[in-house]
Amino acid sequence: MLEWLKEPEINFPGQLEHGGFEHGVCVGQIQAKAGLTQSTVSEYLSILQRAGFIEAKRVGQWTYYKRNEGAFEALSKLIQSNL
Amino acid sequence: MLEWLKEPEINFPGQLEHGGFEHGVCVGQIQAKAGLTQSTVSEYLSILQRAGFIEAKRVGQWTYYKRNEGAFEALSKLIQSNL
DNA sequence: CAAATATATCGACTTTTCCCGATATATCAA
DNA sequence: TTGATATATCGGGAAAAGTCGATATATTTG
Questions:
Q1: Helices (H), A1-83
Q2: How far A44 CA lies from chain B's nearest CA (Å)?
Q3: A42-63 pLDDT, tens per residue?
Q4: What domain count does chain A have?
Q5: For residue B23, what are the domain limits?
Q6: Pairing of strands A62-67, B62-67
Q7: Which residues of chain A lie closer than 8 angstroms to B80, CB-CB?
Q8: What CATH number has the domain bearing residue B54?
Q9: Which of B2, B3, B76 comes nearest A76 by C-beta?
Q10: Which segment of the chain is annotated as a signal peptide (chains A, B) (predicted)?
C-alpha cells in the first residue's frame, strides 16, 4: 500500500471520481486494489497512520490517506545511524 | 543483538577469552547477554544470517557472528528509493 | 575412543499478528 | 427523518512468530 500511494495517479485511477488526489486516496480505492475486506484495510491504514507513515484527512464521508514522506526519510536515517 | 554487535568490545567483554573480536562474537556470549535459551539465540542468529545482516564464521567448536554493514546501508537506501 | 563443550535442529506450546464478518458511527441525499 | 454509502471498531478464528526443552552434530581434550 505504501508503494501504491507513492504514485496514486497510476495506481488508483478510480480516485478521479472522488475529487482527485490532492488530499490523498480514499479507503475504498485502496481496498479494491488490495483485495482484502474493508475492515482489514481500514485497520491497516489506521495502523500505518499511528506509525506516522501516512496522514488521514476526513472530507465528508470519505477519509483520504496519503504518504508522509518525512517518516520514510527519518526511518532511512534511523537505520543508518542507530542500527 | 544487532545493536550489541555494533560495539562488540563494549557489549561482550567476555569475548576476550575466546580469541578477541576479529571474527566476531560467539553464540554463548550473545546468549548470556540476551537472557534467552541457547536454542533460541542460535535460531535468531541463523535467521539474521540468512537475511544477510550478519556473517558467520566457524572456528573450531565456536561460531563467530559479526555484522555485515553493507546490508544495513542497502536497507537504508532501499527504504529511501523503493519505499 | 570417550567425555566435555559449543552450536544447530526438531517438535511442541504460547503469544502475537493477520484477517474476517458483524456491527457501530458518520455523512449524504431524498 | 430515512435509507444509502463510506469508514471505523469489535470479537473471534486462523496463521505466523517467539520461545522452550530435548536431542543431534561437530570439535576438542584426555
A1: 8-11, 27-34, 38-50, 69-82
A2: 17
A3: 999 999 999 999 999 999 999 9
A4: 1
A5: 4-81
A6: unpaired
A7: 72-73, 76
A8: 1.10.10.10
A9: B76
A10: none
